[in-house]
Design brief:
By secondary structure, this protein is α+β, with helices and mostly antiparallel strands. It contains three helices and three strands, in the order βααββα.
Length: 65
């Protein structure tokens, strides 16, 4: 079983993990609001870094619809 804190997620997996659309993930990436790793043409997100980033917004609205 893979340790989740060391796991790498692709954009689709991150979208499910956060409950956001992939277009919102694209927006966050474009605006440098979320960290990611580009490996060739692939984009990956570290779960532990996403959790730290997410914790900053616990009491705030992240995106307006």
């Amino acid at each position: 079983m893979m340790k989740t804190d060391k796991a790498l997620l692709n954009k689709r997996q991150l979208s499910h993990y956060l409950g956001m659309s992939m277009s919102k993930i694209d927006y966050l990436m474009k605006e440098d609001k979320i960290g990611y790793y580009k490996i060739g043409k692939n984009v990956r997100f570290k779960v532990d870094e996403v959790n730290v980033w997410l914790e900053k917004f616990r009491n705030f609205t992240l995106l307006k619809s």
